[in-house]
TrEMBL record:
UniProt-listed Pfam families: Lyase_aromatic
Name of encoding gene: hutH
Family affiliation: Belongs to the PAL/histidase family.
Name of protein: Histidine ammonia-lyase
Gene3D superfamilies the record matches: Fumarase/aspartase (Central domain), Fumarase/aspartase (N-terminal domain)
Length: 521
């Protein structure tokens, strides 16, 4: 993958972040990155601009001054390289649990992309070392807390810059914890001695929160299709109607995502023996299904449209050169506020709200299956022998607990701000925190939807001898390859749920559906 010609795409960020270097990923695709010759030319040119200011008596932020509230402190020339080292060492102050490897790789890749724009004043040798570190699979240890989402993701990026200096801790390509200096030596990478402006160039960016946004968009796009599949199977198993998913009805409200979800649900419910069994309006006394069934496309569709908005924001950010100060196209070195994470933080929070609502509707359908008063003739809790067996009673508890957690995670981080740096940085975005909680929300959504799929699969099978749609049958078969969906006496459920979650996350369930239905939205 070559950087420096066009902005990275969301898909490229996720590919590199989740690959297993060095070499190729599990599909044989290359995982290395390189910088274009045109970009190297820009890097060399703007470094010349910075070098010309190195001995200037006029104050230039981060070149001849301190940082943050110390911006008015003049630094003499003989201490300016120490200034950059001190910046990274002091800012590598993260605390808490280790951040996931894919998050660190994403933020490294995105910082490299910004450095390759030639707007930061980085030296060529520093950027080459950073690229080599990423390609070698060296992953700096980054801690959970340390970024306020303003002045960039300072602590996370500082831990990466510290590793580039040969200090701190990293994990090698095999995941082994080791000293950064040893890892660089093993990869034949010389530690970097930072020069003027380079410390700032390495840490002033929204790269961590942006990387997590790219991964969340990717995961949620896959999960919203799973939500359509689960909802359609619930409609089928609960003897609901597919009439409300007709294309002409959804055309009356031209929300684009809604139409896509309704089309998915129509594909799942096509040729269903269960649905055909109650198509006669004289035999079926139900006039309307509950909202969690009838309005599923409206909610999932709104999630789709929210994802499209988030993707637009991510695309704009991926096309940005975020640094402070920045070298402009006409070679001015200017302070700015582009490092503020508000645009990214807002959509991270928005996605957490959307994910929580999608999960909330899913859990309501699961609960409806288990309630004998509402499941239209099925056993209480879908148990084999209610009373002796509890069926899926506690699986619903698990889903409810996660939905409750997701509602708490949906409280926006971006409305909070704690001033820092002696009130110089008096308003911050908390975008890193928004991204961290969204990752937990995406994981919970995967599990909530999986529990609905397992519940719907059992409910559908309890309708025998009525036959499900071919798509539902294919999904049930895919789940049965890793867990058990068939009715029967109580069994240990946790392993079944975990295996089914994996089948959802790795695409097996969607693939099974598409093998019958064709491409899904």
């Amino acid at each position: 993958m070559t950087l420096g010609n066009e902005p990275l795409t969301i898909e490229q960020v996720v590919h590199i972040a989740r690959s297993a270097p060095p070499g190729t990923d599990y599909l044989g695709r290359p995982v290395s990155v390189e910088v274009s010759e045109a970009a190297w030319g820009r890097v060399r040119h703007t470094r010349g601009v910075i070098d010309a200011l190195a001995d200037d008596t006029v104050a230039h932020y981060g070149i001849s001054t301190g940082f943050g509230a110390l911006a008015n402190t003049s630094i003499p020339p003989e201490k300016r390289t120490q200034l950059q080292r001190s910046l990274i060492r002091s800012h590598a102050a993260g605390s808490g649990a280790e951040v996931e490897r894919e998050v660190v790789r994403a933020l490294m890749l995105l910082r490299i992309q910004t450095l390759a724009t030639g707007r930061t004043g980085i030296r060529e040798e520093t950027l080459r070392a950073y690229v080599a570190m990423l390609n070698a699979g060296i992953t700096p240890v980054v801690r959970e807390y340390g970024s306020l989402g303003c002045s960039g993701d300072l602590a996370p990026l500082s831990h990466c810059a510290l590793a580039l200096m040969g200090e701190g801790w990293v994990r090698d390509a095999d995941g082994e914890l080791m000293a950064a200096g040893d890892a660089l030596a093993a990869a034949d990478i010389a530690p970097v001695e930072l020069r003027e402006k380079e410390g700032l160039a390495l840490i002033n960016g929204t790269d961590g929160m942006l990387g997590m946004l790219c991964m969340a968009i990717t995961d949620l796009r896959a999960l919203v299709t799973i939500a359509d599949l689960a909802a359609a199977m619930s409609v089928e198993g609960l003897l609901g109607t597919d009439d409300v998913f007709a294309a002409d009805l959804h055309a009356l409200r031209p929300q684009p995502g809604q139409a896509l979800s309704a089309a998915n649900m129509r594909k799942v419910l096509a040729v269903s023996g269960i649905r055909d069994s109650h198509r006669d309006p004289e035999a079926c006394t139900r006039v309307q299904d509950a909202y969690s069934l009838r309005c599923a496309p409206q909610v999932a569709g709104a999630v789709r449209d929210t994802l499209d908005h988030a993707a637009r924001v991510a695309g704009w950010e991926l096309a940005s050169a975020v640094d402070n100060p920045v070298v402009t196209l006409d070679d001015r070195v200017e302070s700015n506020g582009n490092f503020h994470g508000a645009p990214v933080a807002y959509v991270l929070d928005f996605l957490a709200i959307a994910a929580a609502d999608l999960a909330s509707m899913s859990e309501r359908r699961t609960d409806r299956f288990l309630d004998k008063a509402r499941n239209h003739g099925l056993n209480a809790f879908l148990a084999d022998d209610p009373g002796v067996d509890s069926g899926l009673m506690i699986a619903q508890y698990t889903a409810a607990g996660m939905v409750s957690e997701m509602k708490r995670l949906a409280v926006p981080a971006s409305v909070d701000s704690i001033p820092s740096s002696a009130m110089q940085e008096d308003h911050v975005s908390m975008g890193w925190g928004a991204a961290r909680k969204l990752r937990r929300s995406v994981d919970a959504l995967t599990q909530v939807l999986t529990i609905e799929l397992l519940t719907a699969a059992r409910g559908i099978q309890l309708r025998a001898p009525l036959t499900p749609s071919p798509v539902s049958a294919a999904i049930i078969a895919a789940l049965d390859e890793v867990s058990r969906t068939a009715p029967g006496p109580d069994r240990f459920l946790a392993d079944d749920i975990a295996a089914a979650v994996y089948a959802v996350a790795d695409g097996s369930v969607r693939h099974a559906a598409e093998s019958v239905a064709g491409p899904l939205n």
